[in-house]
Amino acid sequence: MVAEIEPSNIEKSFLLESLQKGIRVDGRGIYDYRTLKIACGPEFGLVEVQLGQTRVLARVSCEVTRPFPDRPTEGIVQFNAELSSLCAPGFDSTGKPSAQEVAITRMLERVIRQSRAVDTEALCILAGEKVWTVRIDIHFLDHGGNLVDAASIAAIAALRHFRRPDVTVDGEEAIIHDVRERNPVPLSIHHTPICISFGFFGDGGMVVLDPNLLEEQTQASSFTITLNSHQEICAMNKAGGIPLEPKQIHRCIQIALAKVDEVNEKIKEALK
Question: How far apart are CA 249 and CA 179, in angstroms?
Fold first, then answer.
């Protein structure tokens, strides 16, 4: 269960009054992203992302399994997000997954698996018999707000950094080579979807990019846009009761397009 510690009414009032003056409590501009750091390795598929005070660790692993009966020539991509007391005092890692863990997992499934970012047909070894199941585990180390953006960056960077064992198929037999015998093979990635989140306050007239924890706890609504480097919208998600006007959505998309390019450059630098 999650029992997040709520900010006081004084903190919320101070934040809203500051936003009305165009000032954020952490000193950023309204449309400024927090400092993003991406560290890869030492293992393939292990990536740590730090977005301000939010830290996320993504680990990719794979194993050979049977495919789903209705998709005999496609591999499987699975996600799992874990929030624990290590991340923030209000989280409890015991028991069933929390609603926030489920929401983040489903969001990653939408933006990466359902957008076909990973070529699942390339994960097939023997049709109907053997495929690669790729699992992405997301561990949140520090909760400083905007977990979704940090998780999406960590997940796609880890997938691009990951290498699976090479396979030789001889008739109905598949030989999986040890990484010490043959160089491991990168996954086939079609595109790089990145989540960019906004927080809306009051009646929706005040908006910020990349809300921190206090802003998230005070916001009336959130809006997440997922875009790739081809400027394609992969997904959109809105939470909260404030209706958004078309011009607000268009403005958010234009800002997100610029930020996605910056994040993609950061990922490319980290993968070098």
Answer: 47
Name which of 238, 205, 199 is nearest 220 in CA terms.
199
Q: What is the pLDDT of residue 266?
A: 97
Classify 261 as helix, strand or coil: helix
pLDDT tens for 130-163 read 999 999 999 999 999 999 999 999 999 999 999 9
Banded model confidence at residue 1, pLDDT cuts 50, 70, 90: very low
Q: How far is residue 66's CA from residue 45's CA, in Å, rounded to a whole number?
A: 22
3-state per-residue secondary structure call for 96-134: CCCHHHHHHHHHHHHHHHCCCCECHHHHEEECCCEEEEE
Q: What angle do CA 83, 138, 263 make, to 5 degrees?
A: 115
pLDDT in tens, 40-79: 989 999 999 999 999 999 999 999 999 999 999 999 999 9
Average pLDDT over residues 177-185: 92
Q: Is 156 exposed, middle or buried (0-12, 13-18, 19+ CB in 10 A)?
A: buried
Model-wide pTM > 0.70: yes
Report the phi/psi class of residue 70: left, alpha or beta, with left for phi > 0 and alpha for psi in -120 to 50: alpha
Longest Cα separation, the chain = 70
- Structure tokens belonging to residue 179: 């990484």
Query: Over 63-95, what HEC string results?
Result: EEECCCCCCCCCCEEEEEEECCCCCCCCECCCC
Evaluate whether 153 touches 54 at the Cβ level (below 8 Å): no
**C-alpha span between 66 and 104 (Å, rounded):** 26
